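Subject: Sanity check before I submit

Could someone independently write out the structure tokens for this chain? I want to compare against mine line by line before I put it in a report. The sequence has 249 residues.
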Amino acid sequence: MNEFDVFYVFRHGDPVLVAVFAILLLMSVATWAIAASKLLTLIGVRRDNRAALAAFDASQTAPAFHDAIHDQRGPLAVIGQEAFAAFDDYRGVRDGSDKAEQRLDDHVVRRIRQAMDRQLLRMQAGNIVFASVGALAPFVGLLGTVWGIHGALIDISQESSVSMDLVAGPLGEALVATAAGLAAAIPAVAFFNIFNRSQRLLHQDFEAFAHDVHALLMHSDLKPGNAREARDRRTDPHALPDDGLHQEG
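---
Independent answer below. Compare away.
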């Protein structure tokens, strides 16, 4: 072999070098595929979140906000829907006493927090791949380089005469493994940092929105089950309200 050929290892390399380059190729493909998927997801999440925030700003009351987000998607809409579902599922009473309000508040906060955690976990999907590739790819490439140099030196020692072409070709191709490891690791680390920052910003948005929704609900005059009744009336206009919730006054 008189000239540098990066694909020489795949045609004539031993199984270890072939496995190293195959693993690095798989790491690189997985990194870029996950990054593209997460980018599209992030764009959609931001669009859906803007719609949920617009619905919140346009709603003057808790029932109006519930009607506005009941068929929306996106993390903020899901958090809002879960907050209303907490009212639907609450089995206690809301009679205005401090004890009753505290119990309802704890129930709503717990459900909102659980919804936030689920949405954050969904947004963090794929981060472990970025972190693993960023940490492991350089060492996988270094393993290929060391193994390639070892094999090249053995081959050189068996030659009667040594020339620059004989040395440069095999050693250069062995060093390509290190470059391939860095080529796989650098984008993975960059994507990890970019998406991790985006997720921190989303977490701040979740916290602020959850606080606003919680305040809207707790300062409203909704009773447990009111949101469910409103939803039932939308799906069945002839449904009658629960008299037990509408006999006040």
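---
OP: Matches mine. For the report I'm noting this point. The chain has one domain: 8-239.
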